[in-house]
Amino acid sequence: MLVWPEMLKYRDQLWNIENHFSLLLSHQHCFFAYFYLLFS
Fold first, then answer.
1. Can you tell me the distance from the alpha carbon of 14 to that of 39, in angstroms, rounded to the nearest whole number?
2. Residue 25 CA, distance from chain mean position
3. Interval 1-40: pLDDT, tens
4. What's the confidence (pLDDT) of residue 21?
5. What angle do CA 13, 19, 21 make, to 5 degrees?
6. How far lies 40's CA from each of 14, 33, 36, in Å?
7. pLDDT at 27 (0 to 100)
8. CA distances from 24 to 6, 8, 37 (A)
9. 3, 21, 27, 40 - which has most CB atoms within 10 Å?
């Protein structure tokens, strides 16, 4: 049963990453435009 807490921790990390990116998307349009230009 040690796998289960690890899975929850991993899910929480993904959730934090998703929240972080949604914040970036809503507040940092210039950053994403730059990022897009850099890698396109």
1. 23
2. 10
3. 566 777 788 888 877 877 777 776 666 666 667 777 788 7
4. 76
5. 105
6. 25, 10, 6
7. 64
8. 27, 24, 16
9. 21
Q: Which amino acid is at 40?
A: S
Tokens for 33, please give them: 């435009």
Is 0.70 surpassed by the pTM of this model?
Answer: no
| CA–CA separation, 6 and 14 (whole Å) | 12
Which string of DSSP letters, residue by residue, matches the chain? --HHHHHHHHHHHHHHHHHHHHHHHHH-HHHHHHHHHHH-
